[in-house]
Task: structure prediction
Amino acid sequence: MKRILKRLNKFWDETQSFTFLLSVLVVYIFVIIPIVDKRLTEVVLFFIFYFLLLSGGIPFLIRNKRSGIIFLLIVSPIVLLFSEILFKSAWITVCSDLFLVLYCISLGTIIMIKTFSRGHITAHRVLGSIICYLLTGLIFAMLYHSIYLLNGNVAFKGLGTCFRTEFMYFSFSTLTTAGYGDITAVDNYARSMSNLESLIGQLYPAILIARLISMEFTNSKDS
Result:
C-alpha cells in the first residue's frame, strides 16, 4: 500500500500528471460530449470522467493526509453518481454537480500554485494553465446545470436537452466569448454567472501570459 501511495505521489510531482489531466479533460469535452444522446449514457460517461479526474488529484490529498477532504470529494460524489443512475432526483444531481465544482476548484488551486511556483517556465506549467482554463469551463457548466435543475426551463432559452453536455457547450461558448446566441441565459443567477464567466474568459489569458512572461524574465535575470 505504501509503495502504491509513493508511486502516486511521484506521479503527481512529474510532468505526466498534467498531461494525464489535460488528456482526460480534452477527450471528455471535445470527443465524448458530442456523441452523448441518452441520459443513462451521459451519467455513466460522466461517472467515468469524474473517476479519471479524481485519480489525477487524489495523490496531493493523500500526501497532505486530509482524510476528511478525501471522503467528501471522492466517496460522497461516487455515492451520489450511483444514486443518480438508480433514482431520478434533481436534488441528487445538483449535489453531484456541486461536489464536482468543489473538487475542480480545489484541483485548479493546486495546479495554479504549482504553475506559478518559482522556477523557469516549462512545458508542464503551460499545460497546467490550460487545465485550469478548461476546469473553469467545467465549473460553470455544472453551475448552469444546477440552476436549470432548480429553476426549470425558464432559466435558459434554446436548450435542446437537459443533459450536462448541453451546458458544457453553453459554458465554453461563453468562456471563449463566442456567444452564438442559440442558447441564452434568462434567469438572473444564470445571467450573472455567464457575465462572470465571460469576464474570466477575457482576463485569464491576458493575465496568464503577462504573469508567465514576467516570471521567465525575472528568473532569467536572476540566473
Notes: Residues 120 and 218 are 9 Å apart (CA to CA).
